[in-house]
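Example record used in the benchmark description.
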Amino acid sequence: MSGQKTGAKKQPRYIELADDLREEVLNGAYSDPGEFPTESVLCKKYGVSRFTVREALRKLTMEGLIARKRGSGTVVQPAIARGGALHQPLSNISEILQYARDTTISFVPMPAQDIPAKITEQLGISPKRKWFVFHGERMKAGRRRPIAVTIAWINPDLADVVAQIDPEAATLFSQLEEKGNLSVGRITQDIQAISASKSFARRLGIEKGDPILRILRCYFDRDDRMFEISASYHPGERFAYSMHIEAD
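Model output (structure tokens):
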């Protein structure tokens, strides 16, 4: 099973199992669209209940990675059905961290600057001071071009913490939590299709004006203070966003 960080809140067993199975699928552990292990095999292999296996498989089914067919069992969806893109599920913070584990990013700290008007207008905020800025390109093993360009802005109140950030280490928000003695209270997310500017087109290896997906996230602490904003820009063919919604 995927390891848990010391002191981190333990995730439900089915999420851990889903994380492990997702990684195997995306790494090509099963032939495309090869047969997937049966529920009984998975129960025995991971030492979990049938309920846990079914919940994990339901999660991967909703993400479009596998299909469960009557009389045929569970099969891995062909790469073409998945769009050949990186799939990012999101129903909790652990899944943002899973995305970070499955890819790599190196940030470059930039001089503090005003948050661009397009971002502040989208969020409905009016910062009075310049925020710290980090630029990064997220890569996935085996790919030459980045799957995303990310720009992150960090609240100027956290100057002492920003000075301790390791640009090559964990996600920025998790470093801010650890080094700044704060906890994420909530995360908001806005997804919008936009046209690639000349700068983003060059960095992503696409044409200016091509459609890209901008994922704008705001991180708030337990006192509801916004402490980080990140904007990730993904070429459409390299990213598929999935989520599951529970019925009331």
